[in-house]
Each structure stands twice: as structure tokens, then as C-alpha cells.
Amino acid sequence: MNLLFVCTINRMRSCTAETVYAADLHHKVRSAGTAPTATKQVTPELLRWADRIFVMEKMHEAFILENFPDIDVSNKLTVLGIPDFYYYMEPELIDLLKSKIDPLLVV
């Protein structure tokens, strides 16, 4: 399964999720951001590639829906509700990501 993790600047939350889930051989993972300054920006190709899209906040969902209206993400997008106050690979962030994502992944 192809997993895409999205946050704002693709440096903390989505990068942490990508690192954590890259170790799982059942999934291919990528991450991206919605801001123009993001390390890797969300693209139509990434959205089409993904089987599941996990966004950190509602604003990321809104960005995708507004900027890529021709791509149907309705059955594959999940809002995690993880605010932007964590650092890369912070143990609390890792625990929070796993608690929200693991139950949604069926191998």
C-alpha cells in the first residue's frame, strides 16, 4: 500500500511519519507539504500514487481539495488532527502518529 503523509512544510510531522512507516515493508511511503516553502510539495502525481493520504490538520485537507479538484481523494484521505507543535522524531509525536494511523492500516 502506498502511504502519503502531508503537513505544512514537510519537515516535522509528515517527515516523522514517513520515517516511522518506511520501516514497514508492507508499505511504500512518501511525505509532502502544502506550503510553497515545503521540502517536498504536494503534487497531483503524489496524490494519484497514494492509496492512503494522511493529513495532519483540516487545513491540509482543504488545500488538497481546493488545489486539486480533479483528483478524487474522498475514499483515501484521513485527517489525523495533529497540531504543529512537535519536532522531528519527537517520541510523543511518534506515539501519537502510531495511535492514530496503526488502527487504520490493514495488511
The SSE order reads: EHEHEHEH
What is the helix tally?
4
| Lateral arrangement of strands in the main beta sheet | 2-1-3-4
Instruction: Give the low-pLDDT segments.
Output: none
Radius of gyration over all CA atoms, rounded: 12 Å
User: Class by helix and strand content?
Assistant: alpha/beta
CATH topology: Rossmann fold
**Overall average pLDDT:** 96
CATH superfamily: Response regulator
Shape: globular
Which second-level CATH architecture applies?
3-Layer(aba) Sandwich
Taking the alpha carbons of the first and last residues, their distance comes to 8 Å
Domains, number: 1
CATH class wording: Alpha Beta
The counted number of beta strands is 4
What is the strand content? Answer: 15-25%
Q: Percent of residues in helical segments?
A: 25-40%
| Largest β-sheet summary | 4 strands, parallel
Describe this structure in words.
The protein has helices at residues 13-22, 44-49, 58-67, 91-101, and strands at 2-7, 28-33, 52-55, 77-79. The protein is α/β, with parallel strands linked by helices and 107 residues long. It has a single domain (2-92), classed as Response regulator (Rossmann fold), CATH 3.40.50. It has a four-stranded parallel β-sheet with strand order 2-1-3-4. Strand 3 (52-55), helix 3 (58-67) and strand 4 (77-79) form a beta-alpha-beta unit.
